[in-house]
Amino acid sequence: MAKGRILFVNQEIMPFSNESELASLGRYLPAKIQEMGRDIRVFMPKFSNVSERKHQLHEVIRLSGMNLIINSCDHQLIIKVGSIPTARMQVYFIDNEEYFVGRKGALQEDGTPSADSDEQMLFFGRGTLEAVRKLAWQPHLVNFCGWFSSMIPFYMRRINKENSFFSGTKMVITLMDDRFEGHIGGDLERKMKSDAATAKDLRLYGDTSYLGLMKAAITYSQGVIIGSANAHPELVAFAKENKRNVLDYTADRDEFFARINKFYDSIIGKIEN
User: Fold this and answer.
1) Strand 170-175 to 223-226 pairing
2) What is the CATH number of domain 5-268?
3) pTM for the predicted model, two decimal places
4) Which of 32, 61, 70, 135 could connect to 257 by a Cys-Cys bridge, CB 3.0–4.6 Å?
5) What single string gives the DSSP state of each residue in the chain?
6) What DSSP state is assigned to residue 87?
7) Cα radius of gyration (the chain)
8) Per-residue DSSP letters for 237-269?
9) Which residues pair with 46 in a beta bridge?
10) CB atoms within 10 A of CB 54
11) 68-90: burial string, b at 16+ Cβ within 10 Å, e else
12) Where are the domains of the chain?
């Protein structure tokens, strides 16, 4: 079996996030995949409900300090890291004073996206991939989970226009029960245009509802994992209708994680190095 390097990009991870099906998968899947012999890196947003003192987070100076242009303005990328000792796993956090300080999660208290949620998503997606480039750690596969990570495919393509760091890297999206009502805030199309979006990008991401964002991410992915029994049925049908490689949900966690590990091999294919 090929081993390979897997990048996990998760919207929520226990114990940094409150307990939920999404956060539980973010905690246990990467750890299990690491136990199976793969090299992993794990990223999530540094929302304000992540206690830096409790989890002993510290800034990674060599990765921080880069300015990312979002909506024609510079925004400083800050990278922090914490660990889950019981899992022998490190988690990197994407942080920024404007986009994450004072924000308790991807949604507001009423369950709707914030007014600048489009910029938050853009910053998180690009910031994660730029940090991975700075680490000089080239993944064979990126498994991203949660609607807040749905700009990862766009930035994978965007970065590869400038250099080939992610050339050959495959993408897998995990579908969970993380839907929201309405549309993300802001003017995503205009901001993507200023970041070299193609006509296809703009067409796919034109619908900024939950279903629209996730369908765009599915379209650009090579594989789809149904990570919850309550994943939106329209998205599951969309993935299968569009002939994506789909791994169906399994309730038994050990069995499911073993099947996911084999699924990664089927998506990655033969590894030369």
Assistant:
1) parallel
2) 3.40.50.2000
3) 0.95
4) 32
5) ----EEEEEES--TTTS-S-HHHHHHHHHHHHHHHTT-EEEEEEE--TTS-HHHHT-EE-TTT---EEEETTEEEE-EEEEEEEGGGTEEEEEEE-TTTTTT--SSS-TTSS--TTHHHHHHHHHHHHHHHHHHHT---SEEEEESGGGTTHHHHHHHHHHH--TTTT-EEEEEE-S---SSB-SS-HHHHHHTTT--HHHHHHTT--BHHHHHHHHHHT-SEEEE--TTS-HHHHHHHHHTT-EEE---SSHHHHHHHHHHHHHHHH-----
6) G
7) 17
8) HHHHHTT-EEE---SSHHHHHHHHHHHHHHHH-
9) none
10) 10
11) bebbeeebebbbbbbebeebebe
12) 5-268
Place of tokens 């596969």: 141
pLDDT mean for each 10 residues of the chain (273 residues): 85 93 97 96 93 90 89 91 92 92 80 88 94 94 96 86 86 96 89 89 93 96 97 98 97 97 93 66
Record the tokens describing residue 117, joined without a space. 């949620």
